[in-house]
Amino acid sequence: MALDFAERYEGKESEALEKSRAGRWFFENDMVGEFEFVGDVGASDLVPEVVEGRLRVVEDPRNGPPLEVSDAGG
Description:
By secondary structure, the chain is an alpha+beta fold. Helices cover 39% and strands 15% of the residues. It has 2 domains: 2-38, no CATH class; 44-74, no CATH class. The chain contains 4 helices and 3 strands; from the N terminus they run H-H-H-H-E-E-E. The longest helix is centred in the N-terminal third of the chain and has 8 residues, at 21-28. The radius of gyration is 15 Å and the shape is globular. The termini are far apart.
């Protein structure tokens, strides 16, 4: 399903995000700049994950253990 979605919206990711519930929230709350920031496909090659309440970079076997980025639990 994810591959189908990626192929269908390739080059139109922002359009797809804007139509989503989360995307509409940004516009309804006058946060267009934030929407553009989070929807900037390719702006970063980092892939985050949350593990035990902490945000970290997904482990890449070529680079060793993951780095902790921040405490997502507050």
